[in-house]
């Protein structure tokens, strides 16, 4: 997390301080009870953050591939990062195609698929369902690691392009 020079200060109420604060307190916390419970219960989809929903989509995609390929892909590690490293130095044309990367297994390092959340969300915005685009990116990277066509890795590949 970066340190920020941005600071937030609460606004100073205008007018008589005593009257303004009594009114604000009365409107904000009625009868002194505060909120009675969660705004959205934890079992509903709306209670999850965007990053948690994104990680769920990646997990669903990985589980689907594991059902299809079994032990052959169990050693593949899937990472979710917000943005690619060095994004500021990349050209706009390069960033457009950078939704995920794959790294083959090395000495003691497992094969790794990295999925970038923000570029996928920006690409999917309004055009395709984000969960289908996430699955397509994971399948493309897995196909690259296995040396196969994406359609051979998962027959459902390409739903986001239909």
Summarize the helices and strands and which ones pair or pack.
Blueprint: H1 17-28, H2 50-69, E1 77-81, H3 92-96, E2 100-103, E3 112-116, H4 117-124, H5 130-146, H6 150-153
Parallel strand pairs: 1-3
Antiparallel strand pairs: 2-3
Verbal overview:
The chain is mainly α and 162 residues long. The chain is 41% helix and 9% strand. It has six helices and three strands; from the N terminus they run ααβαββααα. It has helices at 17-28, 50-69, 92-96, 117-124, 130-146, 150-153, and strands at residues 77-81, 100-103, 112-116. It has a three-stranded mixed beta sheet with strand order 1-3-2. Strand 2 and strand 3 form a beta hairpin. The longest helix has 20 residues, at 50-69. The protein is globular. The relative contact order is 0.12.
List the defining traits of the structure above.
162 residues; mainly alpha; 3-stranded mixed beta sheet; 6 helices; globular
């Amino acid at each position: 997390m970066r340190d920020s020079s941005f600071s937030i200060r609460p606004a100073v109420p205008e007018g008589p301080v005593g009257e303004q604060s009594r009114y604000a307190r009365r409107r904000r916390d009625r009868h002194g009870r505060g909120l009675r419970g969660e705004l959205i219960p934890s079992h509903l989809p709306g209670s999850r953050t965007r990053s948690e929903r994104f990680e769920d989509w990646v997990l669903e995609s990985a589980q689907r591939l594991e059902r299809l390929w079994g032990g052959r892909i169990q050693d593949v590690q899937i990472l979710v990062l917000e943005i690619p490293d060095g994004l500021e130095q990349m050209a706009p044309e390069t960033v457009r195609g950078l939704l995920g990367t794959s790294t083959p297994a090395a000495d003691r390092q497992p094969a790794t698929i990295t999925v970038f959340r923000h570029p996928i969300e920006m690409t999917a915005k309004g055009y395709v369902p984000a969960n289908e685009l996430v699955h397509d990116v994971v399948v493309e990277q897995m196909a690259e690691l296995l040396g196969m066509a994406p359609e051979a890795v998962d027959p459902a590949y390409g739903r986001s392009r239909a």
